[in-house]
Amino acid sequence: MITKKQYVEYLVSTPKNCTCTYLAEHLEDVSHDVVNDFLRQKRFMPREVWKLVKDRLEDSKDACLIVDDSVHDKRYSRFIELVRAQYSGNEHRVVRGIGVVSLVHSGGTDEAFYPIDYRVYAPDLDGKTKNDHFQEMFINAIDQKQIKARTILFDGWYASAENLKLIERRHWTFFTTLKSNRLVSLSKEHGYSHLEEIEWTPDRLAHGVIVKLKEVPFKVRLFKLVAPDGDIDWVITNDLDETVTAQVAEDSSDVRWQVEELHRGLKQLTGSEKCQCRAARAQRNHLACCYHAWVSVKMKAKELGQTMYALRESLFSHYLRAELQNPHIVAC
Hints:
Blueprint: H1 4-13, H2 20-25, H3 32-41, H4 47-53, E1 64-73, E2 84-88, E3 93-106, E4 113-121, H5 123-126, H6 130-143, E5 151-154, H7 161-169, E6 173-178, E7 183-185, E8 192-194, H8 202-207, E9 209-213, E10 219-226, E11 232-237, H9 246-256, H10 258-269, H11 280-304, H12 308-325
Parallel strand pairs: 1-5, 5-6
Antiparallel strand pairs: 1-3, 2-3, 3-4, 6-11, 7-8, 7-9, 9-10, 10-11
């Protein structure tokens, strides 16, 4: 037999190999088939992540939710059921992999963020788009989890009219980016135009400009954020208060980066991309255990006052010290 606790501890402890075979080789009286059966027969659900973190959230009306997706690279896989061709933001191209949409709760500080929900993107199996998952997790966070936060951050992929209208109906505030080809209107007289066609005065750069989006029945405040390298982010919010400035919009973009930290950590610290099981249920259970492993490392790192990467590296430092004191392979 093997338990979820054992599997999660294996993901945290193994240096690079996350296969069923490698785990079986390091447990007594456990075969590869036992580990494989464990992953195929169990049913770990996203709600288990919520149970792990709900008492640790710094939740208040000043907190926020963050949504983004990530592709777990499986470019060399040909028989894993959940693998499909999809665009990867990290690779900036289409790759074969398993897509996952994550919902993160942030208390606003660098350390105070945790995943509270996620969905595997598998439209061939459930018929759901990424926007469907976005809406499902958002509604669940409000109605079931009763989150106190009232702001949600996401990138342009999720800035559809339907998503924006849903957030507005629920009386939440959003900050999101727009693609440069999005049409906006400054007034009824001028009609709709591309973002690049707007004249950006110093006052507009500092305080934004009120615009109307096509198919969105309410106005938003648009900001043009120019990075030092010249890259431009077009950010909108439905908070029309005059205190909302370009600095506020930029701060929201900085907080939104926390979901990227989660996705990077899942891949680098828990081996989320390395499971070779073919069955969809096995891959889902592996990913569920990866989220559990990430939360476990996060909590321990916070307790010790270390970064998650320093904490995991220390596991192998203990091994190296032991080997240097009593090497198993002695130099000739």
